[in-house]
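Contributing new records

If you add data, match the layout below exactly. Sequence lines come first and carry their own label; structure lines follow with theirs. Keep one chain per record. Anything else will be rejected by the validation script.
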Amino acid sequence: MAKVMVSLPDDLLARIDAEAARLGLTRSALLRLAGEKELGSGDAAAVAAAVERSRERFARAGLSGPSELLVRLDRDELDLRDRRRGLGVA
């Protein structure tokens, strides 16, 4: 596997690192997935394996699928925003 060096704005790198941490991925894994998503992997077996990994991760997290995750994330974001408002934090 090749290694590359890229230049990214600090704020973008911080967002990438935060998302990788949230998903339990390394920075490299997240960037690889983002690249594959944007460009397409071109490999049906790889896509099927990725789907199966996603299903397994949802099952381990006790979720039925992406829609349930999105609902939970939205709810958690609203709860956090309400708590911040209660503390006088924007």
